[in-house]
Automatic annotation (TrEMBL):
Protein name (database record): Phage tail protein
Pfam families in alphabetical order: Minor_tail_Z
């Protein structure tokens, strides 16, 4: 979980006097600046997380939830929940040895032996609609003794370390002072 309020704000001390001169309008200006900065940081987090995990940005966008700032609570929060992501959501390809999936920049392409998501004889295999795109592994020699294969990627864990955490902090540190300056100038009519 990321929160804009948790990032070190050394450079924001210069806005104390300006916010004080705004009076009751100060929380409104700060709220607008935090929400805009948070939205910009969310975009960077989604891009970085997609590269780090190998998941499409569409899947990451559905997974990352936002709690926006308000006048009374000046905190913008990104949250994600969930467990081990199914191989269905990754770029996958079936080979004779098993399914090969791209698990992001850190892990690269990984082979899952004896797994499949298509049926028929090679090379004319077809997608099995009954599986809904899921990758399956045989538990025994029985025809229907199958289980879904998971990737080992946990979005909440990936979100708080590596390039994703750096992208969030960098985006907030670059954009928040600029947005605060803009919103304060706008409120003061400068």
């Amino acid at each position: 979980m990321f929160s804009v309020g948790d990032v070190d704000m050394k450079g924001l001390q210069r806005f104390d006097n300006m916010l004080g001169s705004l009076g009751a309008e100060a929380p409104k200006a700060a709220n607008r600046a935090i929400n805009r900065t948070g939205d910009m940081a969310r975009t960077q987090v989604i891009k970085a997380l997609a590269k780090q995990t190998g998941l499409p940005q569409k899947t990451i966008r559905r997974s990352v939830k936002v709690k926006r700032s308000s006048w009374s609570d000046l905190t913008y929060t990104l949250k994600s929940a969930g467990g081990d992501v199914s191989l269905k959501y990754f770029q996958k390809r079936e080979t004779r040895e098993g399914v090969v999936a791209n698990l992001g920049a850190g892990r690269g392409r990984e082979l899952f032996p004896r797994t499949f998501f298509r049926g028929g004889a090679f090379p004319r295999r077809v997608d099995l609609t009954a599986f809904g795109g899921h990758v399956m592994d045989r538990m025994s020699e029985g025809r229907f003794h199958l289980k879904k294969v998971k990737s080992g990627v946990f979005i909440p864990e990936e979100m708080v370390d590596g390039a994703t955490a750096e992208a969030f902090e960098r985006s907030v540190e670059q954009n928040l002072p600029r947005r605060l300056d803009h919103e304060i100038s706008r409120a003061l009519g400068l």
